[in-house]
């Protein structure tokens, strides 16, 4: 994982471009933030990723009254939930928000994702919750997202999209990909019948297996080594 601020800014832009190229996001709908030296680096509002430069990334103090920023452009309109997650979750170093197709379809239907696959254990429990609806950028949405993320590393946002929160940027992006994969698997399993849901005990066993294998400190997406 890059260490200095410029490398982090470049990594944010690279991940933004990758998530659009991969189909995980569309246009400028998504946003990414990273914790660095007491500040949150976050994508600017309404800037095409292909045109984004490191200097355009906004910086916001994690402590303080909230809402202040430095940089040539204002931060993403979703800065509030990014900042509130960083403040309430010291374990979180990177956040990815996307409007990925299957996660958003389930969010529109207000369907949480149950334990249809053992990989849901990577999110901290047997279900990925769906937060209630509030307009983008509002404190209400941030409060709803924080509640849905309690004890979890990802959630859906009703009629909106999804959030994945990881220890660093690579981990957060890996979780975002996994969340969209679980959403797609759940959607398709519903299409062909009634999916079988794993028990809480089976998910707890999977989570323990992840812990036994350990987590990569750096490198390939910081994912649990035993997870595929």
Account of the protein in words:
By secondary structure, this protein is of the alpha+beta class. The chain has one domain (5-213): L-fuculose-1-phosphate Aldolase. It is 36% helix and 14% strand. The protein has a seven-stranded mixed β-sheet, sandwiched between helices. Strand 1 and strand 2 form a beta hairpin. The longest helix is centred in the C-terminal third of the chain and has 24 residues, at 169-192.
| Helix content percent band | 25-40%
**Lateral arrangement of strands in the main beta sheet:** 3-2-1-4-7-6-5
**Sheet with the most strands, sense and barrel status:** 7 strands, mixed
The CATH topology is L-fuculose-1-phosphate Aldolase
Question: Which ranges are low-confidence, i.e. pLDDT below 50, for 5 or more consecutive residues?
Answer: 214-222, 224-228
Give the beta-strand count.
7
The CATH class assignment is: Alpha Beta
List the secondary-structure elements in sequence, H or E. Answer: HEEEHEHEHEEHH
Please state the second-level CATH architecture: 3-Layer(aba) Sandwich
CATH superfamily: Class II aldolase/adducin N-terminal domain
């Amino acid at each position: 994982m890059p260490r200095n601020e410029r490398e982090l800014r470049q990594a944010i832009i690279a991940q933004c471009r990758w998530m659009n190229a991969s189909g995980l996001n569309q246009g400028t709908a998504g946003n990414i933030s990273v914790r660095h030296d007491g500040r949150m680096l976050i994508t600017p509002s309404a800037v095409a990723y292909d045109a984004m430069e490191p200097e355009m990334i906004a910086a916001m103090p994690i402590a303080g009254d909230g809402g202040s920023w430095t940089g040539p452009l204002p931060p993403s309109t979703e800065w509030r939930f990014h900042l509130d997650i960083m403040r309430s979750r010291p374990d979180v170093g990177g956040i990815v928000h996307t409007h990925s197709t299957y996660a958003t379809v389930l969010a529109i239907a207000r369907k949480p994702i149950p334990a249809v696959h053992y990989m849901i254990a990577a999110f901290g429990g047997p279900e990925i919750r769906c937060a209630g609806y509030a307009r983008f950028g509002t404190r209400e949405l941030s409060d709803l997202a924080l509640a849905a993320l309690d004890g979890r590393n990802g959630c859906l946002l009703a009629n909106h999209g999804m959030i994945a929160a990881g220890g660093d940027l690579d981990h957060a992006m890996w979780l975002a990909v996994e969340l969209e994969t679980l959403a797609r698997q759940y959607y398709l399993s519903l299409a062909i019948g009634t999916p079988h849901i794993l028990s809480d005990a089976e998910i707890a066993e999977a989570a323990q297996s992840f812990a036994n294998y350990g987590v990569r400190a750096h490198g390939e997406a910081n994912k649990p080594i035993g997870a595929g």
